[in-house]
């Protein structure tokens, strides 16, 4: 017991000392005001006309919040998918993991229909011209679907537009993160499209999910969440096995992603961007956004250990992110 206390003391002491000069000295999240809770799997986007920020998140049939700045004050604006999705799978009345982007003049919202831990999943899409609750038209399944015969799970869609082509990154657990080409406009998977694996961690629980691709300079950065996401109030995994944000990069949006040490992302590779630190526990469900006011920011949900570990208590986090070294640093 005494030994354990000593070890902990030494551990924390060295952690505190090393924090000031190692690469793992993560900055605390920027301040957030208004409704900063209810922020699971956030997707952040600004309206071009006036710079208003919109935040979409899991729960409440895809809750919409808006704010004059990424830091708030955030106000609840209603649900994006208030009716059940037309996808005939369990979970279609409470869809997950929104990803919102603009293609031409239209906003596309990709969502997941699934039940926790199952592979009976599909990615659906809804469109709007305004972001407002009540303005979203559900188009049902994109054709990106899975079942127990597949080595992927069709959840956590993320659209990326490269030249005139559209790709949807998706997936988690099983064989982790995949990509598929979409038609134009990107309502459906392109006919005859094949799925390419982008990331795979064959060690441990094989839990990579929540892909988000961001282009900066000559690279495409594939951000993803690795580890246990949820239910931390009921049980917490061994330290380091909780959610954390990782990245790989490539000069192509469609493959060849590697970690900073050169390990392919398809062979367990990944470089840590943000993990548990200070009062932040299990950050993930992230995205990256080139904010009109703040410049490039990493946004995510996290447990604030001073508030509580339940999924409904997860907070919206934002940090400035610096790509100047070629690798994103928080
Ligand atoms: C792969 O899984 C192991 C075991 O869970 C974990 O420690 C490691 O950080 C993971 N690597 C990546 C790139 O996610």
Automatic annotation (TrEMBL):
Q: Do the record's keywords include Metal-binding? A: no
Which Enzyme Commission numbers does its entry carry? 3.2.1.99
Keywords linked to the UniProt accession: Glycosidase, Hydrolase, Signal
This protein's pathway reads: Glycan metabolism; L-arabinan degradation
For the keyword Ubl conjugation, the answer is: no
InterPro entries referenced in this protein's UniProt entry, alphabetically = GH43_arabinanases, Glyco_hydro_43, Glyco_hydro_43_endo_a_Ara-ase, Glyco_hydro_beta-prop_sf
By its UniProt entry, which CDD domains does this protein fall under?
GH43_AnAbnA-like
Could you tell me what reaction this enzyme catalyses? Endohydrolysis of (1->5)-alpha-arabinofuranosidic linkages in (1->5)-arabinans
In terms of PANTHER family, this protein maps to: ARABINAN ENDO-1,5-ALPHA-L-ARABINOSIDASE (PTHR43301), ARABINAN ENDO-1,5-ALPHA-L-ARABINOSIDASE A-RELATED (PTHR43301:SF3)
UniProt lists the family membership as follows: Belongs to the glycosyl hydrolase 43 family.
Which protein are we looking at? Arabinan endo-1,5-alpha-L-arabinosidase
Origin species? Lithohypha guttulata
């Amino acid at each position: 017991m005494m030994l354990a206390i000593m070890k902990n003391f030494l551990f924390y002491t060295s952690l505190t000392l090393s924090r000031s000069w190692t690469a793992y000295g993560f900055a605390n999240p920027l301040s957030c005001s208004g409704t900063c809770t209810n922020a699971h799997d956030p997707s952040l986007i600004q309206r071009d006309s006036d710079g208003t920020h919109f935040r979409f998140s899991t729960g409440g049939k895809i809750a919409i919040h808006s704010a004059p700045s990424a830091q708030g004050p955030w106000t609840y604006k209603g649900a994006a998918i208030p009716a059940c999705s037309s996808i005939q799978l369990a979970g279609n009345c409470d869809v997950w993991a929104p990803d919102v982007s603009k293609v031409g003049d239209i906003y596309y919202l990709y969502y997941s229909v699934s039940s926790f831990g199952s592979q009976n999943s599909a990615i659906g899409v809804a469109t709007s011209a305004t972001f407002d609750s009540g303005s979203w038209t559900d188009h049902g399944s994109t054709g990106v679907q899975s079942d127990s015969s597949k080595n992927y799970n069709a959840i956590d869609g993320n659209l990326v537009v490269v030249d005139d082509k559209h790709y949807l990154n998706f997936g988690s657990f099983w064989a982790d993160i995949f990509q598929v080409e979409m038609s134009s406009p990107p309502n459906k998977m392109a006919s005859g499209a094949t799925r390419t694996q982008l990331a795979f961690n064959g060690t441990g629980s094989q839990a990579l999910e929540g892909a988000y691709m961001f282009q900066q300079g000559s690279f495409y950065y594939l951000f993803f969440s690795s580890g246990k996401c949820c239910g931390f109030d009921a049980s917490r995994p061994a330290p380091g096995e909780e959610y954390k944000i990782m990245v790989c990069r490539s000069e192509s949006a469609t493959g060849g992603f590697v970690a900073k040490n050169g390990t392919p992302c398809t062979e367990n590779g990944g470089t840590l961007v943000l993990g548990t630190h200070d009062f932040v526990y299990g950050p993930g469900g992230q995205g990256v956004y080139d904010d009109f006011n703040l410049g490039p920011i990493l946004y995510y949900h996290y447990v604030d250990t001073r508030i509580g570990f339940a999924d409904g208590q997860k907070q919206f986090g934002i940090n400035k992110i610096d790509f100047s070294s070629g690798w994103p640093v928080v």
